[in-house]
Amino acid sequence: METKILQPTPENLIFAAELIKRGEIVAFPTETVYGLGANGLNVDACRKIFIAKGRPSDKPLSLHVASLEMVERVAKIDSTAEKLFKTFCPGALTIILPKAKIVPDFVTGGKSSVGIRFPANDVALSLIKLSDCPIAAPSANLSGKNPPKNAQEVFDNLSGRVEIILDGGQCQYGISSTIIDLTCAEPKILRHGAIPDEKIFAALN
After folding, report:
1. What is the mean pLDDT of residues 12-39?
2. Distance (Å, rounded) from C-alpha 132 to C-alpha 21?
3. Residue 83, phi-psi category: left (phi > 0), alpha (psi -120 to 50), beta (remainder)
4. Residue 205 pLDDT > 90, yes or no?
5. Strand runs (DSSP E) across the chain, as ranges?
6. Using an 8 Å Cβ cutoff, are 105 and 112 in contact?
7. Is residue 86 scored above 90 in pLDDT?
8. The domain that contains 199 carries what CATH number?
9. What gap in Å lies between CA 188 and CA 166, rounded to an integer?
10. What digits encode the pLDDT tens for the residues 185-198?
């Protein structure tokens, strides 16, 4: 497979979305790092992410969404989640919530919860909206390598493993999103990332 780096023109975004709809994978930018995306409700498509990355199959995938309505399709939201979405989203925060039945167990590694991210990046949001589905997207690198901050770094990792890389330039943060789990008795930070922990907890108080 030849890997092409494409500018995110309207035509190329439509092409990328058609690939997602057909069950293929596409690399795209977010404000944190580049993601390797597939239709998050399509098991066969998501399996291609694991193959391309060499990712352990029991490792959950988070879902990228472009609206709160899309969140409600795939997860159960409570008042704490609403507060975080209102404060930080779109933004560099992944919120773990109880998953809806529509989300395949394969995508969540067999867990009853799912990570939801509402990225603050125009290319990512356009791709999700045009694809008309939540996009499962871990970082676009080989498993164990550093998350890529630009299209060339994605190419260096995944050349021959993905058809297209949408080039959105250098990522704003260059580090992964912060992950907070709301399925515990108390909200728990699982990964320190682009949004400082203290800002998240301050928003919850």
Report:
1. 98
2. 8
3. alpha
4. no
5. 4-6, 26-28, 35-39, 63-64, 93-98, 113-117, 135-136, 164-166, 178-181, 188-191
6. no
7. yes
8. 3.90.870.10
9. 33
10. 999 999 999 999 99
What is the pLDDT at residue 50?
97
Tokens encoding 34: 């580049």
pLDDT for 68 beyond 90: yes
pLDDT, tens digit (0-9, with 9 covering 90-100), for 107-140:
999 999 999 999 999 999 999 999 999 999 999 9
DSSP H helical ranges for 115-166:
122-131, 151-158
Instruction: Pick the closest to residue 35 from 176, 189, 145, 193 (CA basis).
Output: 176
Q: Both tokens of residue 166?
A: 């949408």
Report the domain count for the chain. Answer: 1
Q: Distance (Å, rounded) from C-alpha 69 to C-alpha 66?
A: 8
79 is written with which tokens?
């008042």
Range of 85's domain?
A: 4-204
Q: Is the pLDDT of residue 166 over 90?
A: yes
In angstroms, the CA 110 to CA 193 distance is: 25
3-state secondary structure 42-72: CHHHHHHHHHHHCCCCCCCCCEECCCHHHHH
CA dist 48 and 190 (Å) reads 26
Contacts of residue 158, Cβ cutoff 8 Å, sequence gap at least 6: 3, 27, 36, 52, 53, 140, 141, 142, 165
